[in-house]
Amino acid sequence: YPTWKRTLTRRAREAQMKRFCKAQAIQRRLEEIEVTFRELEQQGIKLEKLLRDEEGTPADQKTQWMNQLLYLVQKKNSLMSEESDLMIAVQELKLEEQQWQLDQKLRSYMNKEESLKTPEDRVAEQEILVQLLEVVNKRNVLIHIQEEKRLSEL
To answer: What residues does the BMERB domain cover (predicted)?
Structure first.
């Protein structure tokens, strides 16, 4: 077994493990965001009730509650933005994994001696190449979306 094949296999496993760890971290963060959403929602409900129910409350107290409510809305909006970024990252990881798998299939066909390839092998190789191009285009679209989002936030 040549050294370069072992090296490629090891690197592929490392890249796959890295994607897996990243996916786990994203999933944990999404769960944290969900919990925080619920907490913010509960705090918002309490503040709204206070604002509606307390007619004899001093104006400065109402202003303070209104400011707290606005802060909660800002925090929720920032979490929603982070959540959408994470969802894009999840899609990117899926496409990256799909691209890696297609790449491996394509390499197996390309490593085959040209004289030994059957017509079915050639057709399969072309289909994989088309699928690979589609995945690359989808990843490009995601990168474009991220860039537009980043520019709009600036």
So the answer is: 13-154
Coil, strand or helix at 2: coil
Provide the 3-class DSSP secondary structure of residue 58: coil
Residue 52's domain spans which residues?
Answer: 3-153
Instruction: Name the pLDDT band for 147 (thresholds 50, 70, 90).
Output: very high
Query: Model pTM?
Result: 0.79
Q: By C-alpha distance, which of 123, 135, 128 is closest to 105? A: 128
User: Which stretches of the chain are DSSP H helices?
Assistant: 3-53, 59-110, 119-153
Q: Nearest-CA neighbor of 36 among 66, 72, 85?
A: 72
Total number of domains constituting the chain: 1
State the Cα angle at 114 between 104 and 100, rounded to 5°. Answer: 10
| Pair 83, 33: CB distance under 8 Å | yes
